[in-house]
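Table 4 source record.
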Amino acid sequence: MLYRRLGKSGLQVSEFSLGSWVTFAKQVDTGDAKSLMTAAYDAGVNFFDNAEGYEAGGSEVVMGQALRELGWGRDSYVVSSKVFWGGSKPTQRGLSRKHVTDAAHAALKRLQVDYLDLYFCHRPDVDTPIEETVRAMDALIQQGKVLYWGTSEWNAQQITEAHMVARANNLTPPTMEQPQYNVFERAKVEGDYAPLYDTVGLGTTIWSPLASGLLTGKYNNGLPADSRAMLPGYEWLRKDFESERGKARLAMVKDLAKVAEGADMPIHHLALLWCIANPHVSTVILGASRLDQLTDNLAALGNRAKLTPDVMAAVEAIVQNKPPAPQRF
């Protein structure tokens, strides 16, 4: 396992990290969570990702119980939460100072930790001024309850505004962004955010590197009954896979599988390694419901040398979706 700085901060995060979306408290109980987290930790993973919106806080409860029982030194791992979807009442959602503060306190209790290493705004909130959110995050940092704050699926203009507000008012700016990134979803990471890596030192903790499982090849012959797309509440994913766009991507997956085979590795290893080949990716968040699934994904690092320039070029020739270079003025 290698480690990368989280943007311009001094925090070192593992290239692969473990997330809990879809799995913890839905497919994974505390015992399974301990097994998964132990395997990841023993492999060098030091970042564990969570959110208040994952299973209505249940995912954080499971992770928190696992962390308490595992008893790792608090200085040996990084844990996150995200704020936006906390409940149905107006004060239980969004990025108002009240909800940002309430959600942080609730996450600390569920995760059974004294502070959050990373705290993300899970989506932009058009009903709350960005300055209010920046001030709320800065207050939590000054209180020692949060170390670094960031965003998830914000656009470059919104992130830039947050930095301008912070700079103008001597507040703490966002350190990182958590966007979706894989061979099919590249516009934000490679296009929209491109100027921010140099100007503000943006770090990225990317999610869905396997495109919700599409890049594992398991959907090549239909939708398996035990797949994520067949879970209750994920009908949107099944609909996406069955759409014209989904069918086009599936055809590309089959071609990508041939490239991976030629490089002597499975397609999901190719997909994961492709993500960390981008130097602006701080960490790739893995998701797993089974121990063998996680250990297999972690094993992709052993194929790092096989991701040659020729293999990268072959991938580009198939997907043909590289964003244009940003204009410099």
